[in-house]
Write a structure and sequence with these properties.
heterodimer; A: alpha/beta; Rossmann fold; 2 domains; 6-stranded parallel β-sheet; 6-stranded mixed β-sheet; 18 helices; 20 strands; 16% strand; B: alpha+beta; GROEL, domain 1; GroEL; 7-stranded mixed β-sheet; 3-stranded antiparallel β-sheet; 19 strands; DML1/Misato tubulin domain-containing protein (chain A); DML1/Misato_tubulin (chain A); DML1/Misato (chain A); mitochondrion (chain A); Misato_II_tubulin-like (chain A)
Chain lengths: 566, 535
């Protein structure tokens, strides 16, 4: 057993994480459920990789609560929004007390507690009396989630280990401005908090017999990226040989904020550049996720996503991350044996090795996902699996003709045209033929396949269009635009996801490198004051610039020659 | 206004409004913390967003937990927290003192005095008070064997202001012993060498000092002993985990046998290291009933654990980084980074190593060590808030003892110093100052009295009565403090009430500085926000 430890830092990362753990919880439940589709039992993924076994079956996960801004009260205590786990799986939120001092009068004010929503209430009831009949209809639960998800805890049905939640505390300034790299300075410089985070992680790592790697999900759109960078630096220090797979997730809305003045846009550009440079220097493989708009993308053919709801966007990101982690959990076999329900096991270290040490030796990869995956035996559609993969990584180029690219493709739960599950060999064959037919073949491509599709848990948002069937098959004769389908109509969906290390990510890196040069390093740059406020000296900024240039180097072999000479 | 032209969004508070905003903020903060001062102070209950409860009267904790948004209050709170960082105590007193300075100044300013005169007066008074403090302090000679009694008194004074009496007295001994344990002559005391562990178990009075270490994890192998006496301790930072070869190369094998060989060869590296440790064990433990414990900062995988268990060695993996340092100090020996050249000298020794299981959590106790230079305070309590409360108190207690050892001086407590200093300022210093700066000296002197006043108020006594009777005694040349039970003057020396010298000095030093700066503010300009309206 090779365990993977998951770390989530920041607001949107927790949104994604909640969905991710809901999938895992659903998988666990389905494997035990005699009424469920047998594929979940027979092709079960090795859940021990992600879970620790405790007396009460608690989960391995380290996580940070987002500190939430509370409306517009100017000098008031921030409101911490958090959840409390009580014995027996009760998840609830509690009212808080806050106090603010204004012009001498001490005003006590108790903010209105966010009540538990219907979904959490039903979880609590379930925890109290398991046998009793359901008091709330599933339909109502889904409606309530659809309209009222304010926090990532609102739809999480997983029990977390008490050690796994960690809340950042203590800021003298206002948190609604927690949107750039410098804003978390206070947290980062508070040595005891960083130490406490390391302690939490050590607690979980100590339990692992054989840690295969650390998955790190970070919301890099704000101050959390500097917290994460500090944390990653310590991880790199303490666990030298443990590979770190980093997903940088972003809420689509944070990218799309349109009205920005010049100063704000420079700050944003610098933040992107610096958090990218810092985060990438302490991990082994980096996957930026966060498309500017999912609703207008190719995926909107099958999915109905409202960009303004992080609940929706995070669900897609979580599904993609789930698919990427499938190979880590497949059964390990010898090279020649062929299993009926899975093939292509990888561990995090191998994945990192495949993607970042070969070809261009580039550690920034693009994530593409097909949700749902097209049916495979159909010759035409299958030719399309390539085309149907839609990128979740922002700012990358569309052309995909890099002869040095390296890929890892995961297909799980694929269906054929009639809606039957395809066997592993069928998947292999059809993917092979797709690649045969391509003009520019990637230098290396790894395929992992499993029969087990992505289960759709109850609190999953209703984002599927009417043309998706019960098992995620694509219906050709659907009635045009009925209601969006959710977890009541759809049990599971096939997924395909691909990590791609190719020149497609070049614009992504170039932009960051460029903006750091332009706003930060260049003499008399406007941003240099901003950087100084964030606590970076000139030399440090230059170092970061160099680091970014180094990341660009694999794409320009000719640059290599000049740099070798000195 | 010119500023309006520069930035139309900036909001400007001018002269008296600015000053009053500052004064009000200082008074507001003072009001909040006032009730917490002294052994009779009341407690505040903080409830966090997650429903976590914190009961505390520690000023530092309060200021850190409360999210203050008023800019002036933030400045004061930061000064107070800085006070805590440097000397470990006196946060509440700092806030009270600053608040009182501002309050006293307000009176003068309302009567038309320019703040500049007050500030000048503060400056004179501050210097005079510091000089007075030098004379007033009681020297304590530390030498090689510090006077345990005086350390206990000072720890008791600090702890009793944070916890109830019974527990405070128990902690007093723990704290003093802990500091004396880690103290090395002629070296600064590193309080990190006192590990603070907490267990949610039993009652707060079960808190104790462990001469040795408590680790928060146990061994991961069922066959390892749970209890061992007379142990050698090997502290190491060596990976005992199977790792893949980390090179960019391919291994080519043509049959299963070759593959097996390759795997075995990769595995052998780890086994080799484990064997080295086992060899050492066999060497030192042969023919006696001693045991062997390996504590590793890196991982130990199951096959290695198995080898160790079979050799009768207890192995713990992934120890805290800082514990490695503490282990060496507690048990002796040295932390080794490689298993080459292991000798008996590398080993530490502990009389007793045992594992304690609490629900799902395991703890490993390493006790009865020889000549410990590091120790652990094991805090027990029935619930989290009790533990947190004790933890904060222990931290402050440790630092007050440390301060005393380093200052080699203490100051009489219970308000005695403040009353004496006030008398000194009024009787001697005020006359030497010319002009209106006298008002500043007077304001400073009155502000000092805030400490005995608040102590009296918190004990339910009449403030006027107490101050008058204290001042009378001082006028008669007696140095007395306040007995908060009866309200009568007492001799703090007899009662054993002492404060830290460095804490007092820090308060006198930093309070007037920040107060002067706040008084001299004549305009507050803030961009983008409205300061006067709450929303």
């Amino acid at each position: 057993m090779r365990e993977a430890v998951t770390v989530q830092v920041g607001g949107f990362a927790n949104y994604v994480g909640s969905h991710f753990w809901n999938f895992q919880d659903e998988l666990l439940g389905l494997a035990d459920d005699p009424d469920a589709d047998p594929v979940f039992k027979n092709a079960a993924l090795d859940m021990d990789v992600l879970y620790r076994s405790g007396e009460t079956h608690q989960y391995m996960m380290l996580d940070f609560t987002r500190v939430y801004p509370h409306t517009v009260l100017v000098w008031c205590r921030l409101v911490l929004e958090c959840m409390l786990r009580v014995h027996g799986g009760i998840i609830c939120r509690v009212p808080w007390f806050f106090e603010f001092i204004r012009s001498g009068n001490v005003t006590r004010s108790v903010s209105k507690p966010h009540g538990r929503n219907l979904f959490l209430q039903s979880l609590v009831e379930e925890g109290q009396n398991r046998s009793s009949q359901k008091s709330v209809e599933d339909k109502d639960l889904i409606d309530c989630l659809e309209n009222g998800v304010n926090f990532w805890t609102d739809y999480s049905k997983v029990q977390y280990h008490p050690q796994s939640l960690y809340e950042l505390h203590g800021s003298w300034t206002d948190f609604d401005k927690f949107d750039n790299y410098g804003s978390a300075q206070e947290v980062v410089s508070d040595w005891s908090q960083i130490e406490e985070m390391n302690e939490r992680l050590r607690f979980f790592v100590e339990e692992c017999d054989h840690i295969q790697g650390i998955q790190f999900i970070v919301d890099d759109s704000g101050g959390f990226s500097s917290v994460a960078a500090q944390f990653l630096e310590n991880i790199a220090d303490d666990y030298t040989n443990t590979p770190v797979l980093l997903y940088c997730v972003r809420d689509p809305m944070t990218l799309g904020s349109s009205r920005m003045n010049q100063r704000e846009s420079i700050m944003r550009a610098l933040h992107d550049a610096i958090s990218f440079s810092k985060l990438s220097s302490f991990c082994n493989l980096m996957v930026p996720i966060g498309p500017p708009s999912l609703s207008r993308s190719y995926m909107s053919l099958y999915l109905y996503i409202q960009d303004e709801k992080p609940f929706h966007a995070s669900a897609v990101c979580a599904a993609a991350i789930h698919s990427i982690t499938v190979p880590f959990r497949l059964q390990r076999t010898g090279p020649s044996s062929d299993l009926a329900h899975s093939s292509g096991n990888l561990d995090i270290g191998e994945l990192v090795h495949i993607l970042s040490d070969q070809g261009r030796q580039n550690m920034v990869t693009a994530l593409d996902v097909a949700m749902p995956a097209p049916s495979l035996t159909d010759r035409d559609a299958m030719g399309n699996i390539e085309m149907k993969l839609h990128s979740l990584t922002p700012e990358i180029s569309d052309e995909d003709e890099d002869p040095y690219s390296v890929e890892s493709l995961v297909v799980h739960g694929a269906l054929d045209r009639g809606g039957q599950r395809t066997s592993i060999s069928q998947v292999k064959d059809s993917v092979c033929s797709v690649y045969e037919a391509r003009e520019t073949k990637p230098k290396f491509s790894h395929l992992s396949a499993s029969l087990c599709p992505l289960p759709v848990p109850l609190p999953f948002p209703s984002i599927f269009r009417g043309n998706i069937g019960r098992h995620g098959e694509i219906l050709s004769d659907h009635a045009e635009e009925s209601q969006a389908k959710g977890s009541l109509d759809i049990e599971s969906i096939p997924m395909a996801a691909r990590l791609r290390s190719s020149s497609a990510v070049l614009p992504f890196i170039e932009r960051r490198s460029g903006s750091l040069q332009k706003h930060g390093v260049a003499r008399g740059a406007i941003g240099s004051m901003v950087l100084r406020d964030w606590g970076f000296g000139r030399e440090e900024v230059e170092d970061m610039g160099e680091h970014l240039a180094k990341l660009l180097r694999p794409f320009h072999p000719e640059m290599d020659l000049t740099s070798d000479s000195d | 206004m010119s500023l309006r032209v520069l930035n139309p969004n900036a909001e400007v508070l001018n002269k008296s409004a600015a000053l009053h905003m500052n004064i009000n903020a200082a008074k507001g903060l003072q009001d909040v913390l006032k009730t917490n001062l002294g052994p009779k102070g009341t407690i505040k209950m903080l409830v966090g967003g997650a429903g976590d409860i914190k009961l505390t009267k520690d000023g530092n904790t309060l200021l850190k937990e409360m999210q203050i948004q008023n800019p002036t209050a933030i400045m004061i709170a930061r000064t107070a927290v800085a006070q805590d960082d440097t000397s470990g105590d006196g946060t509440t007193s700092t806030v009270l003192f600053i608040g009182e300075l501002m309050k006293q100044s307000e009176r003068c300013i309302d009567e038309g005095t320019h703040p500049r005169f007050l500030v000048d007066g503060f400056d004179v008074a501050k210097r005079a008070t510091l000089e007075f403090l030098e004379k007033f302090k009681t020297s304590v000679v530390m030498g090689d064997e510090p006077d345990r009694e005086i350390l206990k008194m000072i720890a008791r004074t600090t702890l009793r202001t944070k916890l109830y009496e019974g527990l405070a007295d128990q902690l007093t001994d723990i704290v003093v012993n802990a500091v004396l344990c880690i103290r090395k002559p002629d070296e600064p005391i590193d309080l990190f060498m006192v590990e603070i562990m907490h267990m949610r178990h039993k009652f707060d009075v079960d808190t104790r000092l462990v001469e040795g270490l408590v680790l928060d994890h146990g061994s991961r192998h069922p066959d390892m002993k749970r209890r061992a006496e007379n142990c050698y301790i090997l502290t190491c930072n060596v990976s005992l985990e199977y790792e893949k070869s980390e090179i960019n190369a391919g291994f080519f094998y043509s049959n299963a046998e070759q593959r097996e060989k390759m795997v075995a060869a990769e595995r052998r590296q780890v086994d080799e290291r484990v064997k080295r440790i086992i060899e050492l064990k066999n060497k030192v433990c042969a023919g006696n009933d001693k045991n062997f414990v390996v504590i590793n900062q890196k991982g130990i995988d199951p096959p290695s654990l198995d080898l160790l268990a079979r050799a009768g060695i207890i192995g713990l993996r992934r120890a805290k980084r800082r514990n490695m340092e503490r282990l060496v100090l507690a048990c002796g020996g040295e932390a080794v980074d490689s298993v080459d050249d292991l000798t008996e000298d590398c080993l530490g020794w502990a009389g007793l190593v045992y594992e304690h299981t609490l629900g799902e959590e395991k703890y490993t106790f390493i006790e009865n060590v020889k000549n410990p230079r590091s120790c652990t305070i094991l805090i027990k309590g029935p619930n989290d808030h009790t533990i947190a409360q004790i933890k904060d108190a222990v931290r402050d207690g440790l630092r007050s003892v440390k301060n005393t050892v380093e200052d080699e001086a203490v100051v009489l407590g219970a308000g005695a110093f403040e009353v004496a200093a006030k008398k000194h300022l009024i009787d001697n210093v005020k006359k030497t100052v010319k002009g209106r700066a006298q008002l500043g000296v007077e304001a400073f002197a009155d502000a000092l009295l805030v400490i005995p006043k608040t102590l009296a108020e918190n004990s339910g006594l009449d403030t006027q009565d107490v101050i008058v009777s204290l001042q009378n005694e001082h006028d008669r040349g007696l140095v007395v403090g306040l007995n908060h039970h009866s309200g009568e003057p007492i001799d703090p020396q007899m009662e054993g009430i002492f404060d830290n010298y460095s804490v007092k000095r820090q308060i006198i030093n930093s309070g007037p500085i920040i107060a002067s700066q706040l008084l001299l503010v004549d305009e507050v300009i803030r961009a983008g926000r409205n300061m006067r309206k709450p929303t």
